[in-house]
Amino acid sequence: MLEAIGVSGDAIQKRDTICVICVICGQIEWTGFVIPSCLCGCDGISIDFCAYSVSLWFFECAESPEIPGAAILSTMSRGYFITFEGGEGTGKSTQLLLVNDWLKILRHTIVMTREPGGTRLAEAVRALLLDPELEPDGFSEIFLLEAARRDHVEQVIRPAIEDGAVVLCDRFTDSSLVYQGLVRGLGWKEVAGLNRLATGGLEPDLTLVFDMDPEAALRRAHSRNSEGSLRESRLDDEPAEFHRRVRDGFLELAEREPSRVQVIKAGGSPEEVFARVHPILPEALR
Ligand code: TYD
């Protein structure tokens, strides 16, 4: 079957299990094959996941009563916590959705959430923080953020991880370190202390920082705004220097915590960026 659709034997490696999904009926099956290189252009393959090692793969629609790979995944007792960070317009939210799609194929339970936000209380705080008519100083800002975070961690994030879910969070404590601690000048150590109080010490297992030139990123964000997909935000309206400092802050974060924080070059199409994200995703989730 694999040769019938034009993939040479060299391109195929044996591996424990890989998820394949029929692009016609959506049925999921598990096989022992993985295609390690870019799949783009191969007959019969969905190009949505081009270059992913877990691939959307055209295969004959056969009846498949059982999904043996599901048993392997359910042995993961504690969940996993991944945060997505970066300046405005770097595409982190798009990458979060792509990681979600990939994890769905692997049949993980996924919780997608964001900060500020993620609970009723925290979403109300978010509306205050992003209201262009309000001008809280850095201290008011951090206390609002940490109040929202406390609720979010206790109501959503920690229970989900304890239940074995993979939590994908758009921004988390590192945004406070960079935006409030560094850029607004409240101090790294001080904000780290407040973060610890709010989270009870919960930290992401992996943080992906999406990095690109802030001017290009802002052009991206503004074209998105003009398409009407993002509401006006007070923090989006900061001067260019602010966004340069945000970028430097995230790069500094990666230097301080190299084992947790990975920097991804965010230029290019969503598929190109995801091809850089995919190899970094932990083995435990595959
Ligand atoms: P959002 O629209 O989510 O921005 P983006 O799409 O860039 O993520 O707005 C969130 C804003 O809140 C963003 O400008 C960064 C800011 N922010 C902080 O300043 N500190 C924080 O701790 C968090 C979580 C966000």
In short:
With 286 residues, the protein is of the alpha/beta class. It has helices at 69-73, 92-105, 120-129, 138-162, 173-183, 188-199, 214-226, 240-256, 270-277; strands spanning 13-21, 28-34, 80-86, 110-114, 166-170, 206-211, 261-265. Helix 4 (138-162) crosses helix 6 (188-199).
Describe the model:
With 286 residues, the protein is of the alpha/beta class. It folds into two domains: 3-71, no CATH class; 76-285, P-loop containing nucleotide triphosphate hydrolases (Rossmann fold). It is 40% helix and 15% strand. The strands form two sheets. It has a five-stranded parallel β-sheet, with helices on both faces. α2 crosses α9 (270-277), α3 packs antiparallel against α4 (138-162) and α4 crosses α6 (188-199). The longest helix has 25 residues, at 138-162. It is globular, with a radius of gyration of 21 Å. The model is unreliable at 1-75 (pLDDT under 50). Bound molecules: thymidine-5'-diphosphate (TYD).
